[in-house]
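User: I'm writing a short report section on ligand binding and want a predicted complex to refer to. Could you take this sequence and iron/sulfur cluster and write out the structure as tokens? A short remark afterwards would be nice.
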Amino acid sequence: MAQSMKAPTQQPKQAAKGMPYWVEPLFTIVALGGFVVYAIWETLWHNTGTYHNYVSPFFSPDVAGWFGFHVLTALYVVWVPFLFRFSCYYYRKEYFRGFFFHPAGCAVAEPGSRKLKAYKGERRFPFNLNNLHRYAWYLAVIVLIFLWKDTVQGFIFKNGFGVGLGSILLLINAVLLTAYTFSCHAFRNMIGGRKDCFSCVNGKPSTGYKWWKRVSGWNQFHGNWAWASLFSVWAVDLYIRLLSLGILHDPRIF
Amino acid sequence: MSEDIVLSIYRGDKSGGEEVRYTVPLTPGMVVLDAVHYVQAHEAQDLAVRWNCKAAHCGSCGAEINGRPKLLCKTRLDDYQGQVVHIQPMQTFPIIKDLVSDVSWNYETAKKIPAFQLSQSAPLQMQQFDVDRVQEFHHCIECFLCQDTCHVLRDHDAKDQYFGPRFMVKIAEFEMHPRETGDRVPLLAKQAGLDMCNVTKCCTEVCPQHIRITDNAIIPLKERVADQYWDPLRALFRRKKTTTPTAPDSAPTIRG
Amino acid sequence: MSTQFATLESHTFDVLVIGSGGAGLRAAVQAAVPGVSVGIIGKSLLGKAHTVMAEGGVAASFGNVDRWDGWETHFYDTMRSGHFINDYRIAEIFAHEAPERVLELEEWGAVFDRTPEGKIMQRPFGAHSFRRLAHIGDRTGMELLRTLQYKAISQDIEIFQEVTVTKLLKDAAGRMAGALAYYRSTGEFVLFRTKAIVLATGGWGKIYKVTSNSWESTGDGGALAYRAGAEMMDMEMVQFHPTGMVWPPGVRGLLVTEGVRGEGGFLYNSEGERFMLRYDPERKELSSRDVVARSIYKEVQAGRGTPHGGAWLDITHKGPEFIKRKLPGMYEQYLTLADVDITKEKFEVAPTCHYTMGGVRAEAETCATNIPGLFAAGEVACGLHGANRLGGNSLADLLVYGKRAGEGALAYSQSIAEVPTIDPQEIEAEMERVMAPFSITHGENPFLIHEELQDIMSNHAGIMRSGPDLEEGLAKIQALTERSANMGITGSRVYNPGWHAVFDVQSMLALAALIFRGALARKESRGAHWRTDYPDELPEMGQWNFVQSVDAGIKEVPVPQMPEELARLFERGMAPGVWKSQQEGKEN
Ligand SMILES: Cc1cc2nc3c(=O)[nH]c(=O)nc-3n(C[C@H](O)[C@H](O)[C@H](O)COP(=O)(O)OP(=O)(O)OC[C@H]3O[C@@H](n4cnc5c(N)ncnc54)[C@H](O)[C@@H]3O)c2cc1C
Ligand code: SF4
Ligand code: SF4
Ligand code: FES
Ligand code: FES
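Assistant: Sure. The structure tokens for the complex follow:
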């Protein structure tokens, strides 16, 4: 009588005992804030992110190269990941908690000043545009395709195939970004989540179901992918920047 | 051998009150509710506490223990050894007395959700993998701890604008049922106020039934609202509308 | 006339349902047809009633997994486990209608576990011939209650939460006319006038110390009806569930669902022996509850108990994946409350008071009692389960007889032109009685009286009983009842649990005496009732039910005799469906 059913839902981890509530928002402020500051520095102060066959994710794809305008080249692309992450359900949680204190922690009173203006959640501009997250996702997928192209390119050196530390970093970054992108809630909805019945056509699980199931599995860790891919982008870009500044030297492994 | 534990329990009613300290002998495996009962039987007969099952099934005993919304009957005292245990009623709802708050708003809200409707009669043909998703929502014990924690209700008191996470779970339960025919997306987009939620996940953190409220109910519902109300491409390919059920106007009263 | 009376809040209904558990809600849903006003009262919040605790499932002979199952077999199992003192007609209607009632739930939104064919899944349970219990993991009662709750709020039913009824009121002609109650939150009185009352207040498992029941199970309904003159039957029959938690002390008695054994768990004694093979080689762990409970009890008595006086239950061989999916509640319950991971270790269990088979005597077709206008359904009623209830039969009972009681009350209310009148003096006297504990200073503490009561019951009317022991217990109950007249409380009327407990204790004391009297009268061992001084089941005793009432004391009434065609079902000595399956086996 046993039949195949889902594994029991994973129990969410309880917030570590005794950790004060402000640790999490503080981390968000520092990490996310730090990244934004770094990204601004990177995009506004640099015009290229390429070092030999390595292309930094900030500068991929090379839209500037296609059109021939070579001013603030990173800006042609970074708005996509920015919109994607800004409208991402996970980052919404993080910035609403970390930057807006809506709320800073669960069952923690919001600071009085937060209550002066009527709270409207995601009802008003610009937050209502978060409803269009799926479009940011479409764009992000396009960018991701180019990122993979660059990743492959990261393994092709002047003298043919090779593996440098940079290639590996690029690969890890591409994998994490892919995991992040395809564990997206909007994707989960479009792949099958919007259906109510998966077997109503012929009594068997539809393909949509299998995908939805898989994506749901990845989705449980969407927050982890979100942070991991953020740090990997950061790390890869910084690595390439340091290479081109001549501060580091890329060790070849193969 | 028996150790003591100190409880600091809120005593008071609408007109105000304060925490009062009680010392209770600790027995192995004791939960907070046991200690409260001990106080009731030996020191303060009129100490008000709501409970039914003492087995985490009924969802009556929600309160705040050291500031965290929890079930009194599922919270072990050994987790608090060496500390004073502060017990307060849920803060989001008006107090009746001591640890009991007036949760009637939730029952009024429940009535605004149109009843389950089918276009066929039982027995229904449904596969287990079809119902897995909604069965998670059926785990809800209506403890209203998520309602208590949700800052939209707790800090902003927007009870007139948002039904709260519990009822998003309820709506998801109907909306995602494989054979249910009602379309509750318009309700979500308007009266139920789904867009008041900013997906900060506190409801999920406190749910004693480990329902992944935000990930599995709220966000998928937000996506459905986006499908119907925001996505221009989907607007072009909109399938035929299913019926939009409504709750009865003259909803009956719930008293007490 | 007092100001209290002049300002008394009052409501009038055609049908009033007391009790918002499964039976009460089902009755209300049934009675709420257009033009009929229905009110429902519960002692706690809506959807919190004792029914939420039910875990294992609801019995209905769909035959989805074992196709030989059918109403005859369900009827057979029910009568046999009840040791034939059940009302056959009640059991017959029940077995017939249970599947329909369960399907109705599915139409109202309940989502049962599924078979691979997409039908309602059914699991095996003790003493059911086939896999019969429709379930939702291990929280079937919650599903049932929640479904009915949401059904009820979509209908025109007026709901009263946290309101306690203290008295049923009759008119001069002895018909049901209303009930007096108070709001727990404010302590204010409220009067209900009505043509018909459905009593669905559940059982009285809280009489015992080690119990699986929720606080509500104080038998208010039984006591209210008894005081109003209703007949109470089979009061000696109290079910002890074989597997309750044993350790830690705080959770002693908390139920371990029969589903654990249904899904394949084994019982062992301290010597590692699977002792059920000895007591019931055929049905083993899935024998009827009375047998398994007694077996564990005997093992402990013989010194083969676990450290805290129970037996070991082991389901680890089923693997963590299976256990967490099929018994998620149990897994979590043991992990959080007892620090035991049941997927890795065996755990201790011991019998716990679980269900009260006895109750208000009601008629099979409409659930009418001997008081005109009073109908009873659910655990408070009596007749279906006889000497032992089968797991899963109670939830099905709530649905089948909840509906019938609703119908019965509806029809009766429509046959009466006007709401009967109540003597104001009676109301005033009752209000005075309810307020009395406030004026007693330094009185008895109701919580402590309750503890004493529980001790007496557990020591004198537990699993094992004997004449002298019962006599002594009864005397103690009488003494305690006298003391209880002096229960006093402190504080205000606003949500005062001490005050509330006074009435709970009064109800329990009234019923405790009935249990003792019934147990003394039944000089034999039958089903859940085990007397060491009369260890055998006696055919001549099996012809009687013991009925008690305020007016007539205790009397024997004959058990209704089955008509020919039903009696024939028992001739083969095996369940009809089992026989059919064997015949088919032979043919192939
Ligand atoms: C742990 C556990 C597990 C169980 N598992 C199963 C199972 O798997 N299968 C099965 O079939 N059965 C099971 N049962 C038995 C079953 O749950 C109960 O017998 C059944 O729920 C009783 O329902 P009811 O509607 O008669 O009463 P209840 O659900 O007990 O409801 C009684 C109602 O009456 C109200 N009430 C009481 N007194 C008053 C008063 N004075 N004034 C106003 N209102 C009042 C209460 O508030 C409540 O709303 C289980 C029982 C327990 C304890
Ligand atoms: S996720 Fe939404 S519903 Fe849940 S607590 Fe946060 S704001 Fe409230
Ligand atoms: S969703 Fe969880 S927290 Fe909210 S009421 Fe239900 S069980 Fe309680
Ligand atoms: S939800 Fe995070 S990327 Fe879509
Ligand atoms: S008392 Fe039922 S959940 Fe705590």
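A remark for your report: The radius of gyration of chain C is 23 Å. Chain C touches chain B through 78 residues (CB under 8 Å).
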